[in-house]
Amino acid sequence: MSTPAIKSQPIYAELEWDRTGTHHILFVSAEDAALAQRLLSNPPGGTLTVVHLRPADDSRSAWSQNLPDTALYLETHTLAEALEVLRDAFYVAQMGTRIYLAGAEDAIWQASQLADTFGVSRDEIRHAQLGTKARPVFCVHCRTITRGVHTNIVSCSGCGRSLFVRDHFSRRLGAYMGFQIDAEVPGEVPAAEVVYP
Amino acid sequence: MSSASLNVEIRRIRDLAPGIREFSLSRTDGDDFPVYSGGSHIVLSLPLGERTHRNPYSLLGDPTDRKTWRVAVRKQEDSRGGSRWLHEQAREGMRIDIAAPVNLFALNRLGRRHILVAGGIGITPILSQARELARLGADFEVHYAYRAPEYGVFVDELEALAPGRIHHYVQSRREQIEFSSLLAGRPLGTHFYICGPGGMVAASMNAGKALGWPESHLHSEQFLAPTGGEPFDVKLTASGKAFTVPSDLSLLEAIEQQGVDAPYLCRGGACGQCELEVVDASGELIHHDLYLSAEERASGKKIMPCVSRLKGGCLTLNL
């Protein structure tokens, strides 16, 4: 049960600093020690703000250990809190700012939607998928977004329909499209498989 | 091969400043004009003797005014005839053809703030953009630089649109726009638009880039007048023509004079529509356009015939 990759599905390039920028805001919500080491050991010029979403425990994180002295590090423990902190960062940000969003798609595209409301264009923002491949899924029937979907078929958290999860992705909604799989023959729902670990 | 053309009558001519005239145009068929977007331009076909001369001019009136379109024309000192004809020959009641509007200088409606900058006659597209932003209730400001107080055309219309948000820079009073301070510390989502002389546009773009502004937020428009130059020979492979481009015609005009249908839109080196493939050039390509990238110029494979020429020798084009 696979659909071919289509144009709207995001392709994530290796995350690099955009050194034409003069201010940098990094939002990171997943561990990747190698990436953290590579980015933080060679920081860009100008100011750097790191908004880190991490579990509220004592675990060590590569994102907080190798920071340049001049970086502003803001630790958050829920996505809602991280988005609030990001909103404040965007509110005071100036032209010349580059935005880097790294983590699970659900988190980075919610942050991206927030950036959209500030008039940020595509050449000012970079996305990188880290950690879980779980998808946010937009139900085309009831317009609810079901989050953290690991399977190719999922029960919609809004209307309960069995949705097939497509590769078609909306940047505006920050979610993949899901549509009812048993519309033709009600009740005929194949077994769901874990395809987005 | 122009876009749809409209026949219009010159209804009113107004002298706005030394060397600057405004023309009000209405359709001769009595229909309404289409609505255009702020920043659009039209191409006027001017009857200069036996040949037609086509010049682009920005529309400056109210984009929602369907009865009258306005353009303002500065008389170019080194005019090859277009602006001089409009200043010396054009009369109220005359009819001319124009091409439907094209916008190469559109507003970004997702912007949260808009900084509009005009240098001299560059005020024309800025005025229609300001009208559109005022109508949308958007956050904008205008910075307008001109030679001397009497050259500040349309300042009353601007002040009425955005009281307190129009900033004047009068050269005769030694006032000038400092782009590094104008563009510094602007909030995320700000867009910058400039129309003016080449040096001013370049200075603003450099200041923006140095401050980290991305290209998508830096908008500029310049129209170049074909400069003329040395005559050169041309061969067209597809249509099998061979001719000489005289010094007072652009390559595009010379091609049209041969009866060959070449594509164009802005005729001012800005839009890229007229790009032609160079098959061979036994001379130096003199690129004047604002469209081709440095790599494309270096490749020697492309030319914009509306403003660019060959120095010496023969140019073979795939047309």
Automatic annotation (TrEMBL), chain A:
The keyword Iron is annotated on this UniProt entry: yes
Q: CDD domains per the record?
A: C1
Q: Which GO terms describe its molecular function?
A: 2 iron, 2 sulfur cluster binding; metal ion binding; oxidoreductase activity
Name the record gives this protein:
Uncharacterized protein
UniProt keywords (A-Z) are: 2Fe-2S, Flavoprotein, Iron, Iron-sulfur, Metal-binding, Oxidoreductase
Q: Per its UniProt record, what InterPro entries does this chain match?
A: DmmA-like_C, DmmA-like_N
Instruction: Please tell me the species this chain comes from.
Output: Methyloversatilis universalis (strain ATCC BAA-1314 / DSM 25237 / JCM 13912 / CCUG 52030 / FAM5)
The superkingdom of the source organism is Bacteria
Instruction: State one Pfam family annotation.
Output: DmmA-like_C
Cite the Dimethylamine monooxygenase subunit DmmA-like C-terminal domain residue spans from the record: 137-178
Q: Which residues form the Dimethylamine monooxygenase subunit DmmA-like N-terminal domain?
A: 5-125
UniProtKB/TrEMBL annotation, chain B:
Give the domain of life. Answer: Bacteria
- Could you confirm whether the keyword rRNA-binding appears in this record? no
What positions belong to coiled-coil segments?
none
Which PROSITE patterns did the record assign? 2FE2S_FER_1, 2FE2S_FER_2, FAD_FR
Instruction: State the signal peptide span.
Output: none
Return the InterPro entries for the record.
Answer: 2Fe-2S_ferredoxin-like_sf, 2Fe-2S_ferredoxin-type, 2Fe2S_fd_BS, Beta-grasp_dom_sf, DmmA-like_N, FAD-bd_FR_type, FNR_nucleotide-bd, MRET
Keywords annotated in UniProt = 2Fe-2S, Flavoprotein, FMN, Iron, Iron-sulfur, Metal-binding, Oxidoreductase
Query: What's one GO MF term for it?
Result: 2 iron, 2 sulfur cluster binding
Q: FAD-binding FR-type domain spans which residues? A: 3-108
The protein's required cofactor(s) are namely: FMN
* Residue ranges constituting the 2Fe-2S ferredoxin-type domain according to the UniProt record: 232-319
A Pfam family cross-referenced in the UniProt record is Fer2
**Name of protein:** Ferredoxin
Lineage runs:
Bacteria, Pseudomonadati, Pseudomonadota, Betaproteobacteria, Nitrosomonadales
